[in-house]
Give the backbone structure.
Amino acid sequence: MSTRPRIARTVPALRRAMEPFARATVALVPTMGALHDGHIALVRQARKRARRVVVSIFVNPTQFAPNEDFGSYPRTFNSDLKALAAEKVELVWAPTAQVMYPEGFATKIDPQGAAKVGLEDTFRPHFFSGVATVVAKLFTQVRPDCALFGEKDYQQLRVVTAMARDLDLGVKVIGIPTVREKDGLAMSSRNAYLTEHERKMAPVLYRTLKASAKAIKQGETIERVLEQGRAHIEQAGFALDYLEARNAGTLAKVQSLKDGPLRLLVAAKIGKTRLIDNIAI
């Protein structure tokens, strides 16, 4: 029988729980819970990179706008613990919002660079400040040697990587390839919102990314490929936010393969569920 991970809910409790890790390398896997196989892949990669693995579970209110799904975001703490026990995770950092943002909390990080390139920041202008602030707190609380993030949230990965570098946080940020369902849909906790019909249509995003990347590699002009891809996604019943080709490092706009390495990124809503995905070109 797997041993239940130790759970720390306050910073002093976390400090005590971390004491046995003092001479070991530590990897942090930040999550908002509702764990799926993509999260487990991060945990397994963390295990390969460090002697000790800490998983944080915190649904961060500051990265949700008032009209977003903070209240309904999936919360499956008990099943999450079982999954982490099966992976032999020893410590779960699960603070409350009051612990993370106590009365009088008045500081936030306002990232620039990759956080201001007209992708997620256009549609969720509050998002990266909330992410950067909470991740900086997680890094200073846990003090890991490395932290693992999925590439599905690619712009977030670039923002967090730059923040850790710019603020000298001493954490190596590692991106792990997106884990997908058999039909290509990127695993996400929000996939639970999809109706049966929406779930059947959702892989259109990944198929469009793959077809677009292939066409660009074969020499078709980026703008023409993107126009065709956008039309295809909208014809499939999505409300498209963006389908863009960007420099993989800076997320700056590009004109051709010469501006690479390139990344294709998409965000679209089907029904009430907003999905994001990306692939390298």
